[in-house]
Predict the 3D structure of the following.
Amino acid sequence: MPPTPQLLARGPWAPDEVLFTWSEEPFEAASAATEAADAAIDALRARDSPSHDGVATRLVAHRTDEAGRLHLTLQPVRWALRLLPEGAARSMTGQCVVRDQEGRWLAGRRASWVATWAGRWTLGAGGAVDPGESPMRTLERELQEEWSVAPARLRGDLLLLLPNDMVMFVGVAWLPAGAEVTPDHEHDAYEWWPASIDAWPDHADEGLRRMAREVEAR
């Protein structure tokens, strides 16, 4: 069973209940981490994966106010730090779990050549939080980029710290009736898994089931 992420905050949050402050001061990684990130980019280049580097977003601090709103303090961070197995420096990623009107769950298998989660099944859409972007906006953007569809309703659910020191903002998008998805080139297969998590196929790993149960419980 994969390690259990640490829960930092729990929703639910409407889109206007996730607030952020952006610091222009970039995060400065230790020299060892910088060298490891350089090596990780070189390794991607060696296997013909996208090897671009750039600026992403890091979580500095978070709190929940008396009204239940989530407040985040964010800053720029080198994108490649998220590739480090134990040193992602709290780089932020968004994970948009997707459900249709029948309650089914959209799952996609990541292509073997992509930079992260290659060959793995994931729920919905996900990716790095862009600089100056709300994580709620990340969910909506990644859904459009990966599946060419817009949500009828969007909700934030969880703020998690993953074992590799990456922070994941998890939300759920419900698609409008009759919506059709078109996968991008970063997926080589996709399926609609049953509404009942217990009926999911064997290739749905325990980490995905755990995330879906957390979302379903909100």
In short: The mean pLDDT is 93.
